[in-house]
Amino acid sequence: MAKKITIDNLAVLEQIIDTASNNFDLKEILAKIVEIIGKITKADSCFIYLISNDQVILKASLKSHHGNLSKIKMKLGEGITGWVAENKKTVVIKSKAYQDKRFKLFTNLPEDKFEGFLSVPIIFRNRVIGVINVQHQKTRSYSKTEISFLETIGKQIGGILEVSRLITETDVLHEALATQKIINQAKAILMKSAQLDEDAAHRLLLKKSMDKRKSLKEVAEAIILAQDLTK
Amino acid sequence: MAKKITIDNLAVLEQIIDTASNNFDLKEILAKIVEIIGKITKADSCFIYLISNDQVILKASLKSHHGNLSKIKMKLGEGITGWVAENKKTVVIKSKAYQDKRFKLFTNLPEDKFEGFLSVPIIFRNRVIGVINVQHQKTRSYSKTEISFLETIGKQIGGILEVSRLITETDVLHEALATQKIINQAKAILMKSAQLDEDAAHRLLLKKSMDKRKSLKEVAEAIILAQDLTK
Q1: Residue A58: count of CB within 10 angstroms of its CB
Q2: A88 and B22 in contact (C-beta within 8 Å)?
Q3: In chain A, what are the domain boundaries?
Q4: B2-152 architecture in CATH?
Q5: Do A2-155 and A170-229 show the same overall fold?
């Protein structure tokens, strides 16, 4: 039996690695991973939460009927999930998770309704960046192997989430750099043509942006285009 | 026996995941992974190469006596390693790898001296970003399980390398954004104080930078400081 579990676990890790390697969409990757975890733990419910600005936000759920996932969120330290996120420690509750005195209870939060509750941190480079919850409607013992394997999955998901966050961050930074160049070009045009200093040119750009309800970048592009046309 | 291998493989993946999760230094992570691969394949030699600008560059080696790893590099398509990098396909050679006619031979390249040769692509999101080589001095059969497991490790390393590359890229972009702000501030000061247009201010900054053998950022910082002092 122990060997059986171990061999399945290898297949599970290989599946997760494959999923992350072949997929471009984080939502799809997390949905697939939640499904895999749900299957191996025979969970009634499985959630993946991501920490963002001191909030723990639901990102993937076994049940597809959760419409807007991101609406389900809690503060660091709140609830079982928030406790795991804050303390970087796994929580294992065999039964009556909803009565556990250490944790504040929520209404309408999915974690209130279960007996068995296994909650492990998602870790990247020693930082908690999310939480995986596995929940059972009936009393459920979690084995040491099971807990430690879910912690390994937590580390694996940590790397996956970090790649995804970094891809978004580099996109934003590339865009910011390009925007800054355009805005500076427009400012230089205003400084020269209207004999303004930098502050005044900046304020003029801001004002145009507000008046026209356009982004700073769009206003700046218009100024550069106008300048090109009059050359 | 098959079960034994499978269980070891799970432990191996867990070790690699742990290594990547707990370590901050890519060199250390790759050194550890090369060591793990060397151990499970009983390799005489194991290398991890990274693709950068159409070159395949050695990044980690089982033997610590390779002084400057990055000196060992080849072009995409050159050698067995370059072929794997270009074709995104695994190469398995049981014996006389050095005589394989498909591949151009190199002098002083570590891949010339082995009989058994297993070379698998490191993949992230369907792109090859590196190559893992496992080499044996004696004739060596590689099993299907072994090959497919090394391909899984290749995908796992793909994620690790990508995180690392993205962390470097975001650092560079943050720095570029900060530098651009400082340079623009300095340009604005020059435009106002010396009545220059933007091009002329830019040329003046470049000239000062070359004359003083300082970076553009350092020159810009000096101009801003001087301005602050005369306020």
Answers
A1: 22
A2: no
A3: 2-155, 170-229
A4: 2-Layer Sandwich (3.30)
A5: no
Q: B6 contacts in A (CB within 8 Å)?
A: 6-7, 10
Instruction: Tell me which chain A residues have a C-beta less than 8 angstroms from the C-beta of B12.
Output: none
pLDDT over threshold 80, residue B105: no
Which tokens in the block code for residue A2?
Answer: 């122990």
Q: A95-138: per-residue pLDDT in tens?
A: 888 777 666 555 555 555 788 999 999 999 989 999 999 999 99
Q: Rounded to an integer, what distance in angstroms lies between the CA atom of residue B174 and that of residue B156?
A: 28
Higher pLDDT, B161 or B79: B161
Architecture of domain A170-229: Orthogonal Bundle (1.10)
Determine the 3-state secondary structure of A24 from DSSP. coil
In chain A, which stretches have pLDDT less than 50?
1-3
ipTM for the whole complex: 0.80
Torsion of CA A28, A29, A33, A39, to 10 degrees: 40
Q: Which residue of B has its CA nearest to A152?
A: B14
* pLDDT tens digits for range B150-159: 999 999 999 9
What is the CATH number assigned to the segment(s) A2-155? Answer: 3.30.450.40
